[in-house]
Amino acid sequence: MSSLDFSTKIGSKRFSNPIFTASGCASSGQELAQFFDLSEIGAVVTKSIMSKPRLGRPTPRMAETPSGMLNSIGLQGPGIDVFLEKDIPWLVANNAKVIVSIAGETVDEYGVLARRLRAVSGISAVEVNISCPNVENRGQVFSCHPDTATAVIETVRRNIGGELPIIAKLSPDVTDIVHIAESVIKAGVDGLALINTLLGMVIDINTMKPKLGGKTGGLSGPAIRPVAVRAIYQVHQAFPNTPIVGMGGVANGRDAFELILAGASAVSVGTATFGNPTALIKIRAELEQLLLERDFRDFRDAIGFAHRGAK
Ligand code: SIN
Question: Taking every annotated instance into account, which residue ranges of this chain make up the domain Dihydroorotate dehydrogenase catalytic (predicted)?
Fold first, then answer.
């Protein structure tokens, strides 16, 4: 039996362990539930949901890259009505801890979504995705500017009511991510999700055209892990009391541990699940082993350990 307290907290909510899904890589968890019990992971972070059903971007929507992949999904989804009717009851029935990710085209749309979620039971937190790179208008990447990031978070805070923690998902495609983090913390978030994918492009040298139907896409996978580690480290250094859900190229326990040492209170796993649907379970076990080998008895003592003694 493990003698490690593996639990973690985001705002007022406690999670049994720090390994979460990454939004968008397993819809609302149904695909992964074929392989393991969803209660074995800390939380399922759902695919970002919008107010209306959405078809997403033209195909092809995925392209391989060295140590990573590009996606250009374009926030395809069933819309909040179907999501609340089908996905939330299914997740609750399957004993999953649920973090609902929301995305909007306008500040008002985020407010509408927050209002729809405020009375829903079975939700542990809301991830406010203000950083999807696959939108027509770069002005809709709200996290690229402190004023628009603030406007969205203030609106969600006002509309969500109660005690539901809000987690802002930020883009690494900015000059100073600490500045953006500061603006959303002032606007009332309880946590941050770092990092969303980086905007990229692949050109097929046979067709001599961009490979993705949407031309650009979000880069994920091991190639972006050092960017995630850097962003988490910088933000944790500036705001050590704000929990961070870290993500970006985590494929094994040592990768998860690296993000935790940088300052993550939880780690989301996305791209790795495409190659191995049980990656989350493997990563959880490997991380637990690494912590015990280093004499950690409380997971939370490892959070931000790389900062200890740092000037
Ligand atoms: C997408 O649906 O295009 C991806 C969402 C995201 O990266 O935030």
Answer: 7-291
Query: pLDDT tens for residues 34-74?
Result: 999 999 999 999 999 999 999 999 999 999 999 999 999 99
Domains of the chain from N-terminus onward? 8-57+75-199+222-300 (3.20.20.70)
Q: Pocket around ligand 1: residues whose beta carbon is below 6 Å from it?
A: 24, 48, 71, 73-75, 129, 132-134, 196-197, 218
Mutate to test the pocket of ligand 1, among 55, 57, 73 (most ligand atoms within 8 A of CB): 73
* pTM value > 0.85: yes
pLDDT of residue 311: 62
Q: Provide the pLDDT confidence category of residue 2 given band limits of 50, 70 and 90.
A: low
CB within 8 A of 151, min separation 6: which ones? Answer: 107, 142
Q: Of the residues 41, 96, 117, 132, which is catalytic?
A: 132
13, pLDDT greater than 60: yes
